[in-house]
Specification:
Strand content: over 45%
Number of helices: 1
Distance between the termini: 14 Å
CATH topology: Immunoglobulin-like
Oligomer: single chain
Number of strands: 13
Helix content: under 10%
Order of helices and strands: EEEEEEEEHEEEEE
Radius of gyration: 14 Å
Number of domains: 1
CATH class: Mainly Beta
Structural class: mainly beta
CATH architecture: Sandwich
């Protein structure tokens, strides 16, 4: 199960999920990944560069795929996630969480890992 609501991503630990990212440029026009661009999705325990990366997924498309083994070893809980656009020319931009009012929304607790569901 995957749920994205108000910039909070929640999923069951051990599930295979994917989500597609809609990007816009500085003029609010749709941005399509160009050859050499990539998206980097990282999850940390805390919203700090010094906090170790617990989950790292890179994609050359606009879709992020999380496989079962990506989250199976992580404890159930709340984490800090960020998505970065790495452009072929070297520019790197954080595209999630979204900036509002010239200040970043707190990324703390924006990735929730729920218990597995077994049948």
């Amino acid at each position: 199960m995957l749920n994205i609501n108000n910039q909070v991503i929640s999923m069951n630990r051990g599930d295979c999920v994917s989500f597609t990212v809609s990007l816009t440029d500085e003029n609010a026009q749709p941005y399509t990944l160009e050859p050499g661009d990539s998206l980097l999705f990282c999850v940390r325990a805390e919203p700090d560069e010094s906090s170790p990366v617990l989950l790292r997924v890179e994609s050359a498309t606009d879709t992020i795929y999380l496989n079962a083994q990506d989250t199976r070893g992580l404890p159930v809980g709340r984490y800090s996630a960020a998505l970065r656009l790495q452009r072929a020319g070297g520019q790197s931009l954080i595209v999630y969480p979204v900036l509002k009012n010239h200040g970043r929304l707190s990324p703390w607790n924006n990735f929730i890992l729920d218990p597995e569901v077994s049948l």
